[in-house]
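Predict the 3D structure for this chain.
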Amino acid sequence: MKRMAFVPPSDWAKLYARLEDYRMTLKAPVDTIGCHMLRDRTASKETQRFHTLVALMLSAQTKDGVTAVAMQTLMQRGLTPQSVQAMTESELDSCICKVGFHNTKAKHIKQVADIIVRDYNGNVPREYSELIAFPGVGPKMANLFFQDADHRIIGIGVDTHVHRISQRFGWVPSTVKTPEDTRKALESWLPREHWGTVNHLLVGLGQTICTPLRPKCDACKLSDVCPNAFKETKAAGEPKLSTLRSPKKKPRAAAGPSDDVAENPTRKREKR
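Done. Predicted structure below.
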C-alpha cells in the first residue's frame, strides 16, 4: 500500500507568520552568538568559511555561549586548516575542552583540516556531497554551513530545537523519531522560501520559551495558536499518586531480601 503524504495543519502559515513577528522581539543566544556570528569578519573569505564549519562542528550538544568561548580560544591562535594541522590533537582538545564530546570533536576537526589541505587546496569544498562525507559533518551541519557561509539554501538545518518544536506545532508526523526524519518531513511540504529562516526562528524559540522540559507556555505569545500549548506543563504539574498519600511501610522480614533486590534479582545486596 502506498504511504500517504503528510498533510500539514491548515493554519501552519498563520502560525509561521506569528512566529516571525514574535522572534523580532524575542531575543535569544542564537541571535548574537550563534554559529553564523562566530567567524572573524576581518579574515579572508576562505578562512571565514572554515571558521563557520568549525563552529558548527563544535556546536552539537553544546550551548552557544560555550561554543563561542571555544571559538575565541581557537581564533586567538589563528584558526586556519593549516594551523589546526600544526596542532596536536591534545592541544586542540585543550582549546575546546568545555564543549560537549570534545575528544571526538577534536579528532574530527583534525581529520577535516587534513582533508581540506590535502584534497581541496586549503579551502572548504563547495559541494554538499563532498562536505557531508567529512567526519563529524551531517546533513544539519552541511545545510547550515552553505546557508551561513555561502548564502545557498540546499536544505533545512534541523537540530533538537527544530525537531522538538516541529512536533509540538504538528508540522511533522507523530511517528518521526530523529532530527533527520523531521528534516525530510519538513522539506516535503514547507515552501522553499522558508527553508533558510525556519532553523533560526525555532532555535531562538527553543532556547528561551519552548524548552525541552516545562516549556513556558504561559509566557509564549504563540500559545493561542499552538496545538500542544500547556499540554506538557499540565502533565508535569499533575501530582503523582505517591505524593497524595503515603502508604504504610510493611515490616521487613528479618531474613528476606531487601525490597530493591527482590524487585531486581540481578542487583547484588550491599554489604552492611
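The chain has a mean pLDDT of 89.
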